[in-house]
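re the bet — no i am not wrong, look at it urself. input seq straight from the record:
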Amino acid sequence: MILTHEEIAFLDVVCYEGTEAPFGGPATDAMTRIGIQSGDTLNLQWAYLRDQPPTGPAIGHAGKVAPPLPWAALSLADREAVLRRDAEIRTIREEMQRARKQHPAA
């Protein structure tokens, strides 16, 4: 598993809000308040889908309130903490892609 349980809980709501009408909600609002847009977290979203593959037509679950931002405790600059974590995930994803190219399935 790439993500922490806290990250999965938060991204579960964010991904739902980003893919189901009316689009947006409390988790999306929490990210927007710190200056994060959906495109800033593409690697986090990739990791979420890898760790929690959808089992039905919806991705994630709706939430009436946003789970706590899992990156808030990492730094006082929440936006920078989210971007830093997304970059960490990008490195993991790229390493996995390189390994797959070097050792393709038979």
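see?? Residues 67 and 74 are 16 Å apart (CA to CA). told u. also DSSP finds four helices and no strands in the chain. so pay up
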